[in-house]
Amino acid sequence: MAAPAEEVSVSDGHHIELVDNHMSDAMRDPEPSPGLRDSKGWDGKARVDRTAVLSNPEALSDPEYSDDDNVVPGEELPADEDLLDDEPEDTEEIQCTHSRIQSIPALRLERFKQVARLCLRQNLIQDIEGLEGLSETLTELDLYDNLISHIRGLDALTNLTTLDLSFNKIKHIKHISHLTNLTDLYFVANKIKVIEGLEGLANLRQIELGSNRIRKIENLDSLQNLEELWLAKNKITDLTGLAGLPKLRLLSIQSNRIRSLAPLADVPQLEELYISHNALDTLEGIEKNTKLQIIDISNNAIRSIEPLKPLADLTEFWASYNQIGDFKEVEEVLAKKEKLETVYFEGNPLQLRQPALYRNKVRLALPQVQQIDATFVKVS
Fold it and tell me: Could you confirm whether the keyword Repeat appears in this record (predicted)?
């Protein structure tokens, strides 16, 4: 029990009650402070129900998980129909980048009778439509970085030579085989698993399919004029499938799962090979590609460059971060290649063992070289 309060008398007859200086009951037996609350009883703290259950636990374990069917729609803003009102109707090029366009028909493009190049990059377009009025003149269509899931609405655009649908949500290559004038085709960073739907594109010069989900090189035989094939950042394990490409001169297949170069014998005309970040531990199989001028094998596990001996036209050899450690072999294989201008050996044992002497030793071994790694050197 708390001690009674003391009373102090004052001259006017009133008295003042003083609290005892000793410890109160509350201090002897403390209880939690009730805290501050608003008029509705809320104490300002956010609380989460501890019994909440994750409805899609597969999203935590599957790197390819995509729940496109349950995307919560954001605020929809109407397309700006007046966006192109200041554009002359005889213009040959229209660019509307990052303009929050959702509807192509709302742009009323049919009024432009001479437009050859249309760029609608970085918008909110989901459907390819409203382009029929440009069919006679349009040759280049750029819809990079939009929200397109299906390839439709291109039936009338038979004069297209360049089509860029990179950075969208496309899963299947369809409805473009009639675009027989195409020379350049871009599908970078979509969700494509299978190379398909390219039949009839005999004039195609290059195709970019990097950053997709492709596991196999296939269905390219109809592309008899293809010169450049870009397949970086996929899941490809085998180079088989290139035999039907008689004009292929550049192959970019970085960041895949390639273990063997043997299938490159099917494309002896190859001039540029970019195959860094794969699973190579040997260059065997590259001997028949005697026309190669540029090779990038960085970030593999290659120990010997002996297979490069027959490649007399080599001008650039990028081999950083491998297991190459024999200066004598480097000199024997590369010293007589008169066209060789650039070499990269950074991160290999031959550089890591003696970093201070490394560059001078390369210069002595390869006097014709003008660049070692990122450093330009004087030609002897």
Answer: yes
